[in-house]
Every structure is written in C-alpha cells, then in structure tokens.
C-alpha cells in the first residue's frame, strides 16, 4: 500500500523528492493537466522532462503506452528515473503501468488532480490500461513511492468532474460505513470543503486494501457498482460523442446493482429507496436501447471478478455492509438495466 500524504503540494513534493536520489525526473501529464496543473509544480521540480498524452479514457491504451515507452527510451531514462504522474485516474492508472513495465520497473509518484483519482484511482497499488473494449483488463499491482494529495487541485476542475468523483466517495460509504454514508449524503459537492471528505474516503479504501492487497477476497467489495457500471461506461465510450464519465457510469451501476441487491442480498426496500434518492440527486438517469444489452453482457462476461462462466457481482446487504462473489443470472442483469430505463 502506498504512502498517502495530505497537504499543500509545495510542502509535499520537495519532501518526496529529497527521500531518494534520481538520475532523471519525468512528468507525465495529459493535455489538460499540462495546461492547468503543471504550472503549479514546475518551480518545485529539479531539471525535468515532460511527456504529454491525450486526455480521456479512450486513450488509456497499449498504443499510448507504446508511444510513451519510445519517448522514455529516447530520453535515455534508466531504472533510477522518477516518473511523476500528474493527472486524473487515466494518467495515474496508465502512468503506474508505464512505470511498472519500463525497464522492469522504475519509481513513480502519483499527484492526483481529480477528485476521482484522489479517492480511488491513485490509491491502492492498481495500475492498468483498457484493452479489447474491457476496462483495466491489462495491468499490474505496483506501489507508488508516494501519493501526494492536495485538494487545491480541484479548483482546476470543471463542476462536472468534481461531481464525477463524488460517486466513488458515496460508494465507500455504501460498502463499509453507514455513518460515513449518512454524513456524506449531507455534503454539498457544489459548495462544500472537500479536504476532510477526501481523507475519510481514502481511509475507507486504505483499510480495505490493507486487508487484501491483491484482491483475493474482501477487496472485491470496492467493485460495487462496477460490473454493470463498467459495461455502461464501455458502451457509452463506443456509442456516444458526449460519453459518460467514469463516476457517472458507476453511479448508474450502483443504482442498478442496489436494485439487484434487493433480490440477491435482501437489501431492505427503504434502504434501496434512500440509495436511489441520493444517487438521482446528483446523477441523471439514462435510457438504453434493448439492442445495447448484448454488448454490455459481453463486457460483463470479461469482468476480472468472474469465476468460470459465472458473472460475479459485489452487492450490498445493508448500507455500510457489502458482500462479494455473488453469481447473478444474466437475465437479472438485463432486468437491472431495464429498471434504469424506468427512471
């Protein structure tokens, strides 16, 4: 598990750089963080090179990684080169994978700049890329030297991106802490102070990861909302110009999987209603054509949690208590998607 530190980046980054001697420093950004976030840290860095990748989930691919491998080779980066991943979940996921595979592993720092990356993508040692239409199907467990979390980076984000990351915070309450869920549902993501919320949410994830670093058991509960959510996200990326963001798709996935939790885990109706009300307060429902269900099922059949031919879900028994390895029939998954069409 990485060392996660919370403070101003002007304090955190010099301390992280002083801990080890690096032959080179390379900063990975996307087009957005190069413009809005890189200027906030450049004065804190020693001599460095910048690698820029295109922004967006559609570029979280082996083709992007191959281009970056070539650039690292051209820079003569060696095994003592430090890679700093400055960006949201796409940059931290892909950058960690890039660092873990180049020269069989070089050190890297994560500086998450989106809410989603701060509470989820940059914490927990998972790295990876999308392949064959399946999200995060290729990857490594690879620890960062440190994760440096400065909530002031959220000021660089558009409103939609902040609300996007709020979905993972709500998920952390739903799977493990009813008190957090109750507190977080009183939070206003449009005007609230994120600092304590981020710390609490990271603590929930860190506790789960510490119990099961390689996702053999209980860590699977962090995937609540993700089996259907990833399928919805993959479909949206392929079929919509203004596609759903990750958190938006996961919010719909959580709603659909809470619906399934009533049947498979006896989630009480009143708790399902509370979940539905909260999620629809922040995320818009979406309707899907029946012909899209087959593609979504294909995505779910390739989910990494599956066992043989069975699609395995992480579902919730109560708000604050989750379970995993729940085999859900495909016809019930379609019913859950059809339920979203009724909202």
Give a description of the structure.
- With 343 residues, this protein is an alpha/beta fold.
- 48% of the residues lie in helices and 17% in strands.
- The protein has 14 helices and ten strands.
- The chain has a six-stranded parallel beta sheet, with helices on both faces. A two-stranded antiparallel sheet has the order 6-7. A two-stranded antiparallel ribbon has the order 9-10.
- Strand 9 and strand 10 form a beta hairpin.
- The longest helix has 20 residues.
- It is globular.
- The protein starts with a strand and ends with a helix.
- The model has no long low-confidence stretch (mean pLDDT 93).
Summarize, please.
The protein has 343 residues and is of the alpha/beta class.
Keywords:
globular; single chain; two-stranded antiparallel ribbon; 343 residues
* Biggest beta-sheet profile: 6 strands, parallel
The SSE order reads EHEHHEHEHEHEEEHHHHHHHEEH
Instruction: Measure the end-to-end span.
Output: 40 Å
Please tell me what the overall shape is.
Answer: globular
Question: How are the SSEs placed, and which strands pair?
Answer:
Elements: E1 4-6, H1 9-18, E2 24-30, H2 31-36, H3 38-41, E3 49-53, H4 62-74, E4 81-87, H5 89-101, E5 108-112, H6 115-121, E6 126-131, E7 134-141, E8 146-149, H7 159-176, H8 178-184, H9 195-211, H10 226-239, H11 246-265, H12 269-282, H13 293-301, E9 312-318, E10 321-327, H14 330-341
Parallel strand pairs: 1-8, 2-3, 2-4, 4-5, 5-8
Antiparallel strand pairs: 6-7, 9-10
Helix pairs in contact: 5-6, 6-7, 6-9, 7-8, 7-9, 7-11, 10-11, 10-13, 11-12, 11-14
């Amino acid at each position: 598990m990485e060392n996660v530190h919370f403070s101003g980046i002007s304090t955190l980054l010099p301390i992280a750089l002083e801990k080890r001697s690096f032959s080179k420093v390379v900063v990975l950004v996307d087009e957005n963080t190069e413009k809005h976030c890189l200027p906030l840290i450049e004065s804190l860095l020693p001599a460095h090179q910048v690698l820029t990748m295109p922004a967006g989930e559609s570029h979280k691919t082996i083709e992007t990684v191959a281009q970056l491998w070539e650039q690292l080779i051209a820079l003569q980066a060696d095994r003592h080169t430090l890679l700093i991943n400055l960006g949201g979940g796409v940059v931290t996921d892909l950058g960690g994978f890039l660092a873990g595979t180049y020269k069989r592993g070089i050190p890297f720092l994560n500086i998450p700049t989106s809410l989603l990356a701060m509470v989820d993508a940059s914490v927990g040692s998972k790295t990876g890329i999308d392949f064959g239409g399946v999200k995060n199907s290729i990857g490594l467990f690879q620890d960062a030297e440190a994760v440096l979390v400065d909530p002031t980076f959220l000021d660089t984000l558009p409103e939609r991106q902040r609300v996007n990351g709020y979905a993972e915070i709500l998920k952390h309450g739903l799977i493990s802490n009813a008190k957090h869920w109750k507190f977080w549902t009183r939070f206003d993501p449009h005007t609230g102070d994120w600092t304590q919320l981020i710390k609490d949410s990271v603590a929930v994830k860190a506790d789960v990861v510490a119990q099961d670093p390689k996702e053999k058991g209980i860590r699977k509960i962090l995937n609540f909302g993700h089996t259907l959510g990833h399928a919805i996200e993959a479909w949206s990326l392929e079929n919509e110009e203004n596609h759903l963001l990750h958190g938006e798709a996961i919010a719909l996935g959580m709603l659909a999987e809470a619906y399934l939790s009533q049947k498979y885990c006896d989630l009480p109706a009143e708790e399902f209603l509370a979940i539905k009300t909260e999620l629809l307060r922040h995320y818009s429902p979406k309707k899907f054509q029946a012909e899209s269900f087959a593609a979504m099922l294909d995505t779910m059949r390739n989910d990494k949690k599956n066992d043989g031919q069975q699609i395995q879900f992480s579902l919730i028994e109560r708000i604050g208590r989750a379970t995993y390895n729940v085999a859900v029939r495909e016809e019930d998954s379609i019913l859950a998607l059809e339920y979203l069409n009724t909202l």
